[in-house]
Amino acid sequence: MAKATNVPYNNTIDLSKTLIRCPFAKCNTRLIKPKSNETFNVSVNGLDFLQAVKPSNISTKESSSDHVSSLEDEQSEPSNNPGSFIKVSDVWDFDNIGVSKEFPDDITISNGVNVERLIICSDCERGPLGFACFESSETGAAVKDVKDLQYYLCLSSVMVECTD
């Protein structure tokens, strides 16, 4: 059986045949096995996500596993450009994920919805790897139920292990 290698996400990868892992080589924790290949393009205003691979770190002499180890403690150049995300409706679908406390209301995604929480790797506590928000437009609710949070994992912030 061939050893699986972790690679940065690209849109030719069928996510339903992968495991998504923490991008840090010393961690490499399994975060989730996506149930589908569906992705969402989301622009987040005022929040920069960890970038799993810096283009300047990749050379032709490196193997796929070297790309993982090329991620240092520093983030690459931040970007507010729309990114590819997977949407997870239930936090318990994740294998290992950390969720922050409530986040300030000044960060919104492309449709004006507020980012409520950040998500990180629960083992190494690095990130952010994504965010959580309430998608309902109900503004009259006095208390928001955390069971209604929708989680978005940024695919440029993680490594992908192809399983098939």
UniProtKB/TrEMBL annotation:
Keyword Protein transport: yes
Highest taxon, organism lineage: Eukaryota
Record-annotated membrane-spanning stretches: none
SUPFAM superfamilies cross-referenced by the UniProt entry: Mss4-like
Keywords: Guanine-nucleotide releasing factor, Protein transport, Transport
Any one Pfam family match given in the protein's UniProt record, by short name: Mss4
Record region (Disordered): 58-83
GO terms of molecular function: guanyl-nucleotide exchange factor activity; zinc ion binding
Gene Ontology BP annotations: post-Golgi vesicle-mediated transport; protein transport; small GTPase-mediated signal transduction
Any one of the GO CC terms: membrane
Residue ranges, compositional bias (Polar residues): 58-68
Matches recorded under InterPro entries: Mss4, Mss4-like_sf, Mss4/transl-control_tumour
Name this polypeptide is given: Mss4-like protein
Species of origin: Wickerhamomyces pijperi (Yeast)
